[in-house]
């Protein structure tokens, strides 16, 4: 079996553009007896940690990457223009961190139809990153097809200057547009387009090979994988219709059904695709072997709390909890002292003393500035929380158990749910940023997925079915309930 690693792979996190579930991708990779696999979703890294954990579980080495959108000029230029693709792979943890910065800048500063970055951004965060020229939508290929060899060479030299000569690779892909153009099942009006794409592919490959030879840049063989099996092309085609608002019967659209080559090919299939360039396959494995990323997971990092000199967070928490108890009740009873010491011991042993001080600071800031808050949930079972002013319910009076909130065997930190008046939410965020540093404050992203009923409605629409029929089919699917999960299958 040839040594080969897939370095251009889209997952379900390429929203409405990738069909591949991460678990199934990894299973297929194991079936091929491969040792590495990359993730290169479009303009985002949403799936990287999920991918990383599942790869390690299955003893596959993960390569974390992204197919970014590169703006023609500045990322701040908001004129309508093409944003060409470029593959970036993390060689090490520093590269992973830099790639996250690049992708974030694309989303926050360069977003115009797509999350775009520019060469200024790439140059600033290039360390630890391996670059490849991507698919036919890459800038170098576009220049070879639409402009000139010299302009493509100039572009490639810029990548070389940004990433270093050892970190730039020329990507070759073969998708057999000529073969599919001769397929009698392909609509006649599509065939000229496929033939044109084949001619462009030939022209681009000729130029890429010439650039490789002239500039000494290695070539790699990739397959633009958007789904796992060849038979999934029809489903991928429907997914693209959902994304673009088109119908399956529309001819003038991006069509995957006519070129069912965008799947996860086996090493043997890739060898058959590139019998004239075995080094292109070998180079993918060389890149894979270079990529070594270790991400520390399951460790909690609390911000540094400003403490009196010589005091630990646990000591300060104990002092404030007892002081708060005395302020509320006038004195500390034996029952209260026993409960406080019990809770404080568990909190300190679990390493959560800074967390309680942090939460207390938020609530006191809100109280001092007239912001209405309400702490709810199992945190009400903590006497420490009550004495620190975080909650407003005496757990001893109402016999609320602390263990439901936190106990020695709980693997994750306790949740202190704090409701804040909507109109003052930004004030609290600014307070946290000013107190602990802007780079220490983030907002939670809720990642939406399509539920079964919505999926059926969308697919029915792209198939051209009457809405009344699609709706009636959709309503036969139970919503499902806890303990009785209903799958679409």
Structure description:
- The chain has 489 residues and is of the alpha/beta class.
- The chain contains 18 helices and ten strands.
- Strands 1, 2, 3, 4, 5, 6, 7 and 8 form an eight-stranded mixed beta sheet that branches. Strands 9-10 form a two-stranded antiparallel ribbon.
- Helix 5 crosses helix 8 (191-215), helix 9 (233-244) crosses helix 17 and helix 12 (313-329) packs antiparallel against helix 13 (334-350).
- The relative contact order is 0.09.
- The model has no long low-confidence stretch (mean pLDDT 93).
Number of helices: 18
The largest pleated sheet is described as: 8 strands, mixed
End-to-end Cα distance, whole Å, is 35 Å
Order of helices and strands: HEHEEHEEHEHHEHHEHHHHHHEHEHHH
Proportion in β-strands: 5-15%
Mean pLDDT metric: 93
The backbone outline, from C-alpha atoms, is: elongated
Helix content: 40-55%
